[in-house]
Amino acid sequence: MIALLSPAKTLDYERELPPLGATVPHFAEEAMGLAKSASHLTQKRLSELMHISPKLAKLNADRYRDFPELPERQALFAFAGDVYTGFEAHTLDEAGVTFAQDHVRMLSGLYGLLRPLDMIRPYRLEMGTRWAPRHKSLTDWWGTRIADLLREQVAEEGSGTVLNLASQEYFASVAGKLDGVRVIEVEFREPGPKGPRFVSFNAKRARGMMARWLVENHVTDIDAMRGFDSDGYRFDAAESDADRWRFMRG
Question: What is the pLDDT of residues 33-84, one digit of tens each?
Fold first, then answer.
């Protein structure tokens, strides 16, 4: 199977890296072109598009302006948000990273589809952004390209299955475009005063933990993923169906 993750707004280009190989993103040229187009956006426009403060708008305007000269690092170690806190990539052994390279993908507004060891530059461009060159939105701009590549990679991997651990915003870039691929949707819930509830922060961390569990245990059988049990989560058979799985936290 291939597990899909969202990227993160929070980035880490400071922490020391383990000795790793590196690969080039499939859509590296497209990313460079998007960054060049975004470099023409004013700080005010970036702030409006991304709903960010003037300070963050300046940071990202500077990033787009200087994009070709920015430092690069492997995507799995560059992203540092809640999902990647759950993944804990820096404690993963080399065999686990190698397995992740074959079985984990990150959707990206700028880079389209990333492998863990693909080198990326610092950026912020969410998939839901209502802007793109000659299009109304990024999802329109990407069209079927991300889904086509993902289908190719799933075919090469051989399982015919995607484990969707991405947010709705990012999965929208491939939703309805993965003909012939089985997609398992995963949701995480925990007890609440009115029954099972969704807690965004915990769910994001759980998505990363599940991806970590997959690569740490070298899981290739999708049904085995029902055994995920990190941080007190358990598969809830009564609230699940064939392609939509619920995990409850005890």
Answer: 999 999 999 999 999 999 999 999 999 999 999 999 999 999 999 999 999 9
Is the CB of residue 99 less than 8 Å from the CB of residue 87? no
pLDDT score for 19: 87
Q: Where are the domains of the chain?
A: 2-20+73-249
- CA distances from residue 249 to 24, 137, 193, 229, 240 in whole angstroms, order as listed: 38, 36, 14, 9, 14
CB atoms within 10 A of CB 132: 18
Matching residue, tokens 């700080």:
43
Radius of gyration of the chain, Cα coordinates, nearest whole angstrom: 18
| pTM of the predicted model as reported, rounded to 2 decimal places | 0.95
**What is the DSSP annotation of 142-189?**
HTTHHHHHHHHHHHHHSS-EEEE-S-HHHHTTTTT--TT-EEEEEEEE
Half-sphere exposure of residue 246: CA atoms within 13 angstroms, side-chain side: 15
Q: How many CB atoms sit inside 10 A of residue 194's CB?
A: 6
Residue holding tokens 């699940």? Answer: 240
Alpha carbon distance 138, 109 (integer Å): 7
CB contact at 8 A, 26 and 112: yes
